[in-house]
Please model this.
Amino acid sequence: MGKYLWIKSDFPPGKISEIMAEISCSKAIAVYLAARKIWKKDEIEKYFNPSLSMLDDPFSLPGVEKASERIWKAIRNKERILIFGDYDTDGVTASVLLYGVLQAHGASVSCFLPHRFDDGYGMTAESLDKALSLSLCSLIITVDCGISAFDAISSASANGIDVIISDHHEPGTVLPDAYAVINPKIHPEYSHLQILAGVGVAFKLAHGFIKFGRGKSFCADEYDLREDFDLLALGTVADMVPLIGENRIMVRKGLKILSEQLRPGIRALCEFADIGGDVKSSDITFSLSPRVNAAGRLENAKLAFDLLVDKNYDSALKCAEAINVLNLSRQKTEENIFNQALKEIDNQNLAECRTITVYGENWHLGVIGIVASRMAKEFCRPTVVFSIQGETAFGSARSVGKVNILEMLSENSVLFHRYGGHMMAAGISMSANKLCEFRKSFEDSAAKRLNNAVGSPEFEFDGEIFLGDLLHDGFFESLHLIEPFGYGNANPVYRINRLRVEKLMPAARIHSRGTLIDERGENISFIAFNFDNDSFRNIRLMDVIATPQMNKFRSENSPQLQIHDFKTSGHN
Ligand SMILES: [Mn+2]
Model:
């Protein structure tokens, strides 16, 4: 019964009424807060009203002040500055943010984004040479990379170039010998900043730079860094860092700026993505970030950079159009490989496997990661998708639940040329003739961690409520207080029992929509993705786990439930 194993989040039962007494909110909101362990009055107030004044002083992050001073010196001395970024949305937005701030303050600055296939990830000695051959400089600032760029940084130093590293990736035990290193992850005492995306760390540097300049009267108060929060929201949501603490403050503000579409490139992108009005974090995840990423996946991230720095709407529109074409082609390629991969696993005995390993000849390297994510999610198993290019297989690994995929890979590292990544996602390169061996030992690594062959997917919900708790206590009016939702700040999910389907109609053939009514006669519209009308046949009374949301349709907003799963009432 039901697609998922329903798990109720764990909190003391008295918490709901305690919270309701403390702040007078609806029961549904209290359940949401209780489930996220936001229990105390002052914590709740901060959560409801995150403000920019709650952001840390940028100078409190080690390296920011020293780096700021160095950048101002470079500006005064008319030195050339090179920003070395990355090709994904986080890396591109971090580059655009810092580039814009430095340029506005008179810096002679250029930016290099490595090419995903020609240069590979991070700042290598080769990609740095390439960057320097395009534009000489005496100061390099890395964003969203650099923390393990030992070779490149020593070669820069040997050439008399100072390097400022700003990064959020996990550092090794030794740090590169750079002029300044800004990375919250090298300071255990800054654990609250370790959630920042690359663009978040770049923002700290930009903020520090402006603060330093104002302190020394190098610059006036004109530059409004708040207008750059659109970039912060874009990169932070795209990089899947948790939307709590400073990230939540930045994204809440950033979504407002995104909605205003001040930046010509954003306006152009929204035009093609058909986004108007309030931009939600889900618009970033499903519409904006895939487009920004498409440039780096299929061609060159420089295109996305050019779009976002463009000050002219007409040329931005042309750039957005080109990006949109790349995104369409990315979707087609992805669908094609996904279907081939599905065919591949048809021939495997999936019921007896805890993992998925699939491969194909010359599958596009820019999309195998997305395909791996989709397969891991759909089949609820750690998944690696390989593209065989000549004698080498390049793999993209994705995990599910709490399975640490990097650990699983490290147990098999003798098979690889190179590998790296984090708990949920990693990349591999290895000799193609070792694929069978890999499949077997990857499965063995999973056997040590997952006891049942078919992982039964779990779905966590916040607590049980009645329909009336959503409809009569101002829940939908206060929804904005708990937004934005995303990774680390999940949508509210409630269990609502004993509902009857009152109206039912198909939505795009494979989905369903209609109306639900409870035993007290309360009713609400619903949408159920990937449940066709037939799935509701033979069910009289059902329990659901669902997310309440405002459905925007032709400028009308109406409350609805998005149903994640359902089962016949009375069955637990
Ligand atoms: Mn990043």
Q: What stands out?
A: The longest strand covers residues 494-507. DSSP finds 19 helices and 18 strands in the chain. The mean pLDDT is 93.
